[in-house]
């Protein structure tokens, strides 16, 4: 029977002293991100185009139930983000990710991580193409000789001229500044929703045509099925797949500072989401049928907002496409190793004669990898959990074939699926739920209050200053993590059923 490792106070003090001296030396060379900048980055990674469908969620749920679900989604998503920070303490600083944590907890389910990221990024990319087809005809409309469907399809196809060349690049460093454009566009759209509501409130909503102002429901939802359908939309709105990176860049990433970042960023985001959902719904009522930008009357200010959003999502499409391609390639590699390799499941150490290299350098720093090469294969060692790196091969031929298949599939789906909120529901119920609930919940249940000696040793080794934190011994948090994972699986099943069965 496995016995729990006793945390020796003297050993911990010595380890803390070593870490303090090391941190003092490193801080002279490089400082990490502040709490304030980390809060801004977290908010930036959460808020996106999915916010524009939240008023529709209030229409289907009613204000009371919609507000409750929004707050509950914020609490559960925030808990999942905090569990990511807790999980990072079992790995060397700045090396934690969904994949690396999965390797020390459930290594045989690593393909599940890649599948979640693939569904999330690929699905969001499709929604961006659909959104382009919805908005561009309102920004630059054609004459009466063109039908609405023809104009929509024309803009979807012409968007290829911008997105396709960027998707065939292996590096996208030049697009890293799109986050600035994203912030400008989102801020403008939020102010647009606020403007229409407060002007309408001051004029008894005479600024809204009568035919566009429907009834408002405070308590009664449309149906139970509609609640679960829009739940996926709300979950996706809160998805923050980059939280591990934010923790990794944080200066002095203590659990207290991580909690502060999660609490403040989720509070601001929830307030923003709730006001946009409420003000947008009160402005148009049950007339809203999806994206609120499609409801606004045509004007120069509204066209500017739509144009900014289209430019933002088209430039963001390649940024979603690249991690999706990496994950699909990892899945292909996993099947190749597991079912077609002569070595079977033991073929991880070598592939095509290539020796695997440590992901973590001897000095404890992360090995530098190029974006398309930063795919790790991790194998569990019999004596301890060892994280090793192997460049998952992506030869040029496979790169072109995989990219072409993904692009054709993405545009075909966007061409035939005309509902932006439908795609968000599917993506939120699959990749969004996995990233927000299931994976963090599984990590927390495995690592918190663990009886595994090797895991306790890794915690002491990599986080000696916080190894005695009550969170790592709290069984209530452990089983709350299990509830989060179960809640995620339940949400996934019900949301998919509610969305697909329509």
TrEMBL record:
Its main location: membrane. It holds the Pfam family Aa_trans. Keywords: Membrane, Transmembrane, Transmembrane helix. The chain crosses the membrane at residues 39-58, 64-83, 111-131, 151-169, 181-203, 223-240, 261-284, 304-321, 399-417, 423-445, 479-500. It is found in: Membrane. The keyword Metal-binding does not apply. It is a multi-pass membrane protein. The keyword Transmembrane applies. One of its GO terms (molecular function) is L-glutamate transmembrane transporter activity. Coiled coil: none annotated. GO terms for cellular component: fungal-type vacuole membrane. Residues 32-460 form the Amino acid transporter transmembrane domain. Belongs to the amino acid/polyamine transporter 2 family. This is Unnamed protein product. It comes from Ambrosiozyma monospora. The lineage of its organism: Eukaryota, Fungi, Dikarya, Ascomycota, Saccharomycotina.
């Amino acid at each position: 029977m496995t016995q729990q490792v006793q945390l020796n106070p003297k050993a911990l003090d010595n380890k803390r002293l070593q870490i303090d001296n090391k941190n003092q030396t490193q801080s002279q060379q490089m400082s990490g991100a502040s709490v304030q900048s980390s809060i801004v980055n977290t908010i930036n990674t959460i808020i996106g185009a999915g916010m524009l469908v939240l008023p529709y969620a209030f229409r289907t749920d009613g204000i009371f139930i919609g507000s409750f679900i929004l707050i509950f989604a914020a609490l559960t998503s925030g808990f999942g983000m905090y569990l990511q920070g807790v999980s990072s303490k079992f790995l060397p600083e700045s090396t934690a990710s969904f994949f690396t944590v999965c390797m020390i907890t459930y290594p045989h389910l690593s393909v599940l991580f890649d599948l979640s990221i693939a569904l999330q990024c690929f699905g969001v990319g499709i929604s961006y193409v659909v959104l382009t087809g919805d908005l561009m005809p309102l920004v630059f409309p054609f004459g009466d000789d063109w039908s609405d469907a023809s104009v929509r399809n024309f803009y979807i196809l012409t968007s290829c001229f911008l997105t396709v060349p960027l998707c065939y690049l292996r590096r996208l460093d030049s697009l890293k500044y799109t986050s600035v454009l994203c912030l400008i566009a989102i801020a403008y759209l939020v102010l647009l929703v606020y403007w229409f509501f407060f002007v309408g409130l001051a004029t008894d909503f005479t600024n809204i045509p009568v035919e566009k102002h429907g009834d408002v429901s405070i308590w009664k939802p449309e149906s139970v099925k509609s609640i679960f359908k829009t739940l996926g939309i709300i979950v996706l709105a809160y998805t923050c797949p980059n939280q591990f990176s934010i923790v990794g860049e944080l200066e002095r990433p203590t659990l207290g500072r991580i909690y502060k970042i999660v609490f403040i960023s989720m509070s601001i985001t929830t307030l923003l989401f709730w006001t946009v959902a409420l003000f947008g719904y009160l402005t148009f009522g049950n007339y809203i049928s999806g994206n609120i930008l499609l409801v606004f009357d045509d004007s120069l200010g509204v066209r500017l907002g739509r144009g900014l959003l289209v430019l933002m999502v088209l430039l963001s499409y390649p940024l979603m496409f690249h991690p999706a391609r990496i994950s699909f390639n990892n899945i292909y590699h996993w099947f190749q190793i597991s079912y077609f390799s002569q070595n079977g499941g033991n073929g991880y150490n070598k592939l095509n004669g290539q020796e695997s290299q440590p992901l973590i350098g001897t000095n404890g720093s992360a090995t530098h990898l190029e974006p398309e090469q930063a795919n790790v294969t991790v194998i569990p060692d019999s004596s301890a959990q060892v994280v090793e790196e192997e460049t998952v091969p992506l030869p040029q031929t496979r790169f072109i074939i995989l990219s072409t298949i993904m692009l054709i599939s993405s545009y075909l789906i966007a061409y035939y699926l005309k509902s932006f909120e439908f795609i968000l529901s599917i993506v939120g119920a699959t990749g969004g739920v996995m990233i927000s609930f299931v994976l963090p919940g599984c990590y927390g249940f495995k690592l918190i209050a663990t009886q595994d000696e090797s895991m306790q040793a890794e915690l002491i080794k990599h986080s000696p200053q916080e190894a005695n934190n009550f969170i790592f011994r709290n069984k209530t948090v452990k089983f709350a993590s299990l509830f989060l994972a179960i809640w995620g699986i339940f949400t996934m099943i019900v949301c998919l059923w509610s969305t697909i069965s329509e």
